[in-house]
Write a structure and sequence with these properties.
The complex is a heterotrimer of chains A (216), B (300) and C (303).
Chain A: H1 2-6, H2 8-40, H3 45-60, H4 63-76, H5 83-109, H6 112-120, H7 125-164, H8 168-177, H9 183-215
Chain B: H1 2-22, H2 51-58, E1 61-65, E2 68-69, E3 73-75, E4 81-82, H3 84-95, E5 103-107, H4 113-118, E6 124-130, H5 133-136, E7 139-148, E8 150-155, H6 165-169, E9 175-178, H7 182-188, E10 197-200, H8 203-211, E11 217-221, H9 222-231, E12 236-239, E13 246-253, H10 257-269, H11 271-280
Chain C: H1 13-43, H2 49-56, H3 63-101, H4 107-119, H5 122-135, H6 147-174, H7 177-185, H8 190-220, H9 233-244, H10 247-279, H11 284-299
Classes of the chains: A mainly alpha (216), B alpha/beta (300), C mainly alpha (303).
Pfam family, one (chain C): BPD_transp_1
Transmembrane segments (chain C): 20-42, 78-98, 110-128, 148-168, 205-228, 248-265
Main location (chain C): membrane
């Protein structure tokens, strides 16, 4: 394990960079996912079509390819931002499709009578959604949404390869290929770093699931 | 390209014939003759138990090279590899009595080169492989067969960056290189902060990013950069002197002195083939000079 | 979108007019953006035949080679995904059955294994499969397909078998209790009950989830590009753009191929799910529970 202990500072930096990618992506993909989900169930046909197009595209393309377009395609369009920005953007675009689908499935699980009652009280589409359906959908949304987000945490590993650098995955790459350390101990260190993120997140998810279940 | 390859094969053939006629080659150049690929020694004899004898006996050689390095080792659309490293490997294979078609090419990106040698998955690695002491702890090097040096490439209209020191003076300037490569490690000491270094999987991605303004410079060995400069129609230029020395060696199993000496002798005996190999590949790029074979380092 | 949504009324004439105006304005804006983007790309030389020709013009000298590479890429991607899928289902079933039949204490190491593999990025698992297994001296190069292929397959399997274990466990749990009780009452042993009665039904319920997961595995094969060389679709794209210097165009075509394959698989999963729900071979509540259990699996994919 000495390669890990010798380079503990690199690992800590890598861990923090990965965490930074994750936090920005988390906020972004929840917001964007909610918007896309709203499009998917909206009364306006073109918005529905847009939502379907979005989900179909990003759910069926490998994250790697999405990231290629963000890192090399957007600059061709004259959009010059940091690679960190592009990496996080790619992860947000990709994950938003899954978030949207999880939310839509939750909305569909709310009994029809709830929405009908809300409408008979005179609430419009957005109020029905915001005040009646979404709060109830939340409890069915939590487990799949949690899985989507934890998958996103893990997917952040791929972002590091697109010019971002300094995250856990890239740290492992540099230690093994440029500094000549053995792969096994170095990547056990990388694996521990990711488990430090995903295992507590999984535990937290279970706690939230139980909380929401009681609220039922 | 196809035509050029044939031409270079012919040059190699002529050279080999000339050498065979001299007949001063006690190790490899036994043959010559008039076969279709005359650079291949016909029945070379080697001391039993040596790597050379083993390879000659087997009739095939496994060579590790890069598949993504224009000018040195690039896999073309037909699945063949082309480049200077590839041609150098063919010279050595020929001296072992192995024809081009019997060479098994193994893709060895920078990260796995020591591993595949240690694991016996290849007989030698010719892959823009800089000789250094860290690597010598795990493997041995024959050669060097080429001396490159690290340099910096920028956009033609850039007057700000004039050399590696510019990154110390201007902490906003970014430089791109390949993850885990020696140039990426070398440039670190000039950087004011780590965030100036942008890392990708391969140099063409760095060149794309320089072209669309995402990075300010690209750094690696000059000969690789020259390839991009010549393709860019004046969009890129090199700046500053080379600030490192990167002797390219041929990686072999640690401690195989006999094989190392054999490779060095073969290269020394085939200098014309060596020049032809250069001129048909990396030498096609404007601004490169045909190298002469460097003095070999002692085998260990 | 066949059934009318309960979330809103059908649009009246005024709403429809507003929608129409909104749509036209949005389309105009979109057209403007596309125009700007295209003009910019033209300026950057991204629409030249030099860049697109090898991909779309059959008369181009590189066209045949390019599409041969892409075809090989698709075949290799499908091959790795299929083998990883079969292994994942087999091992996943073993883990699921073990978890269902083992005692409370004996289950603990198994749960640890599941949590471990579920907690790691797929790309890290692929790295372990391709690079670390090789480094610690396990030689897979003699296996048909080669070392990288099996390394990739093992990496993908490690991740997906635990996903399947969960899917199948949920599938078995979703079956009506009477199935198991009935089987035991007819004198079948525990093992026979599982094998003959419960698992076949669970598989049928889980079939859509299994196909959806195949999409995930298929996309994840592309992660091998970060670790080693295996000529799957994305790597072939790399080779093409390296030779032709047209990354944007090549990756665009590669993305379309991925979308076409995965979209087809997704539709297939939907079709099977609908047919099952209609045919009633799978009881409705079971299908619903299973779909819910499969939810995380369907979306809990890698990259």
């Amino acid at each position: 394990m000495s390669p890990v202990l010798d380079n503990l500072d690199l690992y800590v930096d890598g861990f923090l960079t990965s965490l930074r990618i994750i936090v920005y992506s988390l906020i972004g993909c929840l917001l964007l996912g909610l918007i896309i989900a709203a499009c998917r169930v909206s009364p306006v046909p073109p918005l529905r079509a847009f939502g379907t197009f979005w989900v179909t595209t990003f759910r069926n393309t490998p994250l790697t390819v999405v990231l290629v377009f963000c890192a090399f395609g957007l600059p061709e369009l004259g959009i010059n931002r940091s690679f960190f920005f592009f990496g996080v953007l790619g992860l947000i675009l990709y994950t938003s499709a899954f978030v949207a689908e999880a939310i839509r499935a939750g909305i569909n699980s709310v009994p029809a009578g709830q929405a009908e009652a809300a409408r008979s009280l005179g609430l419009g589409f957005s109020l029905t959604l915001r005040d009646v359906v979404l709060p109830q959908a939340l409890r069915t949304v939590v487990p799949p949404l949690g899985s989507v987000l934890i998958a996103m945490f893990k997917n952040s590993a791929v972002v590091g390869a697109f010019g971002v650098g300094g995250d856990l995955w890239s740290t492992g790459q540099i230690l093994t290929s440029a500094r000549g350390y053995e792969t096994l101990p170095v990547f056990i260190g990388v694996a521990i770093g990711y488990l430090l993120i995903t295992l507590p997140a999984g535990a937290l998810l279970q706690v939230i699931e139980r909380k929401v279940a009681i609220a039922r | 390209m196809r035509f050029r390859r044939t031409a270079s094969a012919l040059t190699v053939a002529v050279t080999a014939l000339a050498l065979a006629a001299c007949g001063d080659d006690d190790d490899g150049g036994g043959g010559g003759g008039d076969s279709a690929e005359p650079s291949v020694a016909e029945t070379p004899e080697f001391e039993a138990g040596t790597t050379m004898a083993e390879i000659a006996e087997r009739g095939t050689i496994r060579v590790g090279t890069k598949f993504d390095q224009p000018g040195f080792g690039l896999e073309n659309l037909e699945g063949e590899v082309e480049g200077f490293d590839v041609e150098v490997a063919k010279i050595i294979a020929g001296a072992l009595g192995i024809a081009e078609g019997d060479i098994e090419w193994v893709q060895t990106p920078s990260a796995v080169r020591e591993e595949v040698i240690e694991g016996g998955e290849v007989d030698m690695v010719v892959a823009t492989y800089t000789i250094n002491d860290t690597r010598r702890e795990r493997i041995s090097f024959a050669g060097p067969y080429y001396e490159a040096g690290q340099q910096i490439m920028v956009a033609s209209d850039d007057d700000e960056i004039t050399g590696p020191e510019s990154f110390t003076e201007n902490p906003d300037a970014t430089v791109c290189s390949v993850t885990g490569s020696t140039p990426a490690e070398n440039i670190r000491e000039y950087l004011a902060s780590d965030s100036q270094l942008v890392l990708f999987e391969e140099y063409s991605q760095c060149a794309d990013s320089l072209s669309n303004g995402q990075v300010d410079a690209v750094t690696t060995d000059n000969v690789i950069l020259l390839g991009f400069v010549s393709e860019s129609d004046g969009e890129f230029k090199l700046v500053g002197e080379q600030f490192t020395e990167e002797p390219y060696g041929i990686g072999i199993t640690k401690g195989d002195v006999a094989f190392c000496e054999f490779i060095n002798e073969t290269l020394a005996d085939n200098e014309e083939a060596y020049v032809a190999a250069w001129e048909s590949t990396a030498g096609q790029v404007e601004g490169t000079e045909t190298p002469s074979l460097p003095e070999p380092q002692p085998c260990s | 979108m066949s059934e009318p949504s309960v979330l809103y009324d059908a649009q009246g004439p005024r709403a429809r007019r507003r929608t129409l105006i909104g749509t036209v304005v949005a389309l105009l804006l979109l057209a403007g953006l596309v125009f700007l983007a295209v003009r910019r790309l033209v300026d950057r030389g991204q629409f030249t035949m030099e860049k697109w020709g090898p991909l779309i013009d059959p008369d181009n000298e590189a066209f045949d080679a390019v599409w041969r590479l892409l075809r090989e890429g698709v075949v290799n991607t499908l091959k790795a995904a299929a083998v990883a899928m079969v292994l994942s289902i087999v091992l996943g079933t073993v883990i699921a059955v073990a978890r269902l039949s083992l005692g409370r204490v004996a289950r603990i190491p198994l749960i640890g294994l599941v949590e471990l593999f579920r907690g790691l990025p797929v790309v890290v698992l692929v790295y372990f499969g391709v690079r670390v297994i090789d480094d610690v001296g396990i030689d897979l190069s003699g296996w048909p397909g080669g070392q990288v292929f099996w390394g990739l397959v093992f990496g993908l399997t490690a991740y997906n078998m635990v996903v399947f274990a969960e899917v199948i466990r949920a599938g078995v749990a979703s079956l009506p209790r009477g199935q198991r009780e009935g089987a035991l009452a007819t004198g079948l042993t525990d093992g026979q009950t599982m094998r003959i009665v419960l698992l076949p039904q669970a598989f049928r319920v889980m079939l859509p989830a299994i196909i959806s997961q195949l999409v995930v595995v298929l996309k994840d094969t592309s992660l091998v590009t970060f670790v080693a060389n295996y000529d799957e679709l994305l790597s072939q794209g790399d080779t093409i753009q390296r030779n032709l210097d047209n990354p944007i165009q090549t990756y665009f075509v590669v993305a379309l191929i991925y979308i076409a394959i995965n979209y087809t698989l997704g539709r297939l999963a939907q079709y099977i799910q609908k047919r099952q729900a209609r045919s009633g071979r799978v009881s409705r509540p079971a299908a619903a529970t299973a779909a819910k259990a499969a939810g995380p699996a369907q979306v809990g994919g890698g990259a």
